[in-house]
Write a structure and sequence with these properties.
Blueprint: H1 3-19, H2 22-36, H3 42-52, H4 57-64, H5 75-98
Length: 100
């Protein structure tokens, strides 16, 4: 993932944390974690995040920049989606370790 995309991913994570209730933030992180562990498909991630963030169209639009709106048909799309999720989950884990 490019440095610019990594920065946008972190901005997304921060927006979800700042502008949504704590429960929504936790659910968002859990969805990404499930995807990272290959327990959700890209389509399932979209469905869940679309519902979860339906009251936050700006955040939802930013999220859609990272994952395709459909099941990826090109390997690059899938690789970028996985990279995005990994970046966010890694940053969350680093933050959790630092704040113990």
């Amino acid at each position: 993932m490019s440095q610019a995309k990594s920065k946008r991913a972190l901005e997304l994570l921060e927006l979800v944390k700042q502008r949504t209730p704590p429960q929504t933030h936790q659910e968002f992180l859990e969805i990404l974690s499930l995807f990272r562990r290959k327990q959700l498909t890209v389509q399932q991630v979209h469905e869940r995040v679309n519902i979860l963030l339906s009251d936050y169209p700006t955040i939802l639009d930013l999220f859609h920049e990272f994952l395709p709106n459909r099941k990826p048909t090109i390997m690059n799309e899938f690789t970028e989606a996985v990279s995005f999720v990994n970046t966010i989950v890694d940053k969350v884990e680093q933050f959790s370790i630092q704040n113990r």
